[in-house]
Design a protein that fits this description.
The complex is a heterodimer of chains A (115) and B (116). Chain A is mainly beta. Chain A is built from no helices and eleven strands. In chain A, strands 2, 4, 5, 6, 9, 10 and 11 form a seven-stranded mixed β-sheet that branches. Chain A is globular and about 40 Å long. By secondary structure, chain B is mainly β. Chain B contains no helices and twelve strands. In chain B, the strands form three sheets. In chain B, strands 2, 5, 6, 10, 11 and 12 form a six-stranded mixed β-sheet that branches. The chains are: A mainly beta (115), B mainly beta (116). The A-B interface holds A 4, 31, 33, 35, 40-45, 48, 50, 56, 58-59, 90, 92, 94, 97-104, 106-109 and B 4, 6, 9, 32-33, 37, 43-47, 50, 52, 91, 93, 95-109.
Chain lengths: 115, 116
């Protein structure tokens, strides 16, 4: 079974703090994604990566950055957390680069609260 | 840019009955895929079913089937013989073909509650 894990289920941070959200997948997937989930808005893509050290902006990249130094690990960074970044963050991975139809496998999510 | 709309925020159904969740989308792409994902309470999101736009035949997976109306840009999910374990939030999603890397555009979600 594919396993996608996220470093924390719940996180509380202060405004202005630098926040790291970690995601690890164990199935040698090429693609990895970061989404945020908000009520009434569904999931929105923040960033994705199709290879080590490669990254592409999604629909809402402002205020975020990412890092992919190893194939299995994809980190989301909030350089200076703000209250409007309070949300559920979901990581996902899929097998083949360019394989649009591939299933995305999701992690359990990190509920981030910024005070 | 693509948009996906789910107009039913919440739905409920009795166990063993059939329910249909609606989804519409807008795109100028000719090659794309559509998906339904399920997010059970406090559990990870999983794929329920996928449909390739170039296939006219509607996809089915056991009790789950879709009604894909390409001209109307409609993609509804039918759940037959509903079970308590079907209680979840359901998301409709779109992925453009070509070099999109499988990026998904999601709808707003529909919370489905199955009552005993």
């Amino acid at each position: 079974d594919v396993k996608v894990t996220q470093s924390s289920r719940y996180l509380v941070k202060r405004t202005g703090e630098k926040v790291f959200l970690e995601c690890v997948q164990d199935m040698d997937h090429e693609n990895m994604f970061w989404y945020r989930q908000d009520p009434g808005l569904g999931l929105r893509l923040i960033y994705f990566s199709y290879d080590v050290k490669m990254k592409e902006k999604g629909d809402i990249p402002e205020g975020y950055s990412v890092s992919r130094e190893k194939k299995e690990r994809f980190s989301l960074i909030l350089e200076s957390a703000s209250t409007n970044q309070t949300s559920m963050y979901l990581c996902a991975s899929s097998f083949l680069r360019g394989a649009t139809q591939d299933t995305q496998y999701f992690g359990p999510g990190t509920r981030l609260t910024v005070l | 840019a693509q948009t996906v709309t789910q107009s039913q925020p919440e739905m409920s159904v009795q166990e063993a009955e059939t329910v249909t969740l609606s989804c519409t989308y807008d795109t100028s792409e000719s090659n794309y895929y559509l998906f339904w994902y399920k997010q059970p309470p406090s559990r990870q999101m999983i794929l329920v079913i996928r449909q390739e736009a170039y296939k006219q035949q509607n996809a089915t997976e056991n009790r789950f089937s879709v009604n894909f109306q390409k001209a109307a840009k409609s993609f509804s999910l039918k759940i037959s013989d509903s079970q308590l374990g079907d209680t979840a939030m359901y998301f409709c999603a779109f992925a453009a073909g070509g070099t999109s890397y499988g990026k998904l555009t999601f709808g707003q979600g529909t919370i489905l509650t199955v009552h005993p």
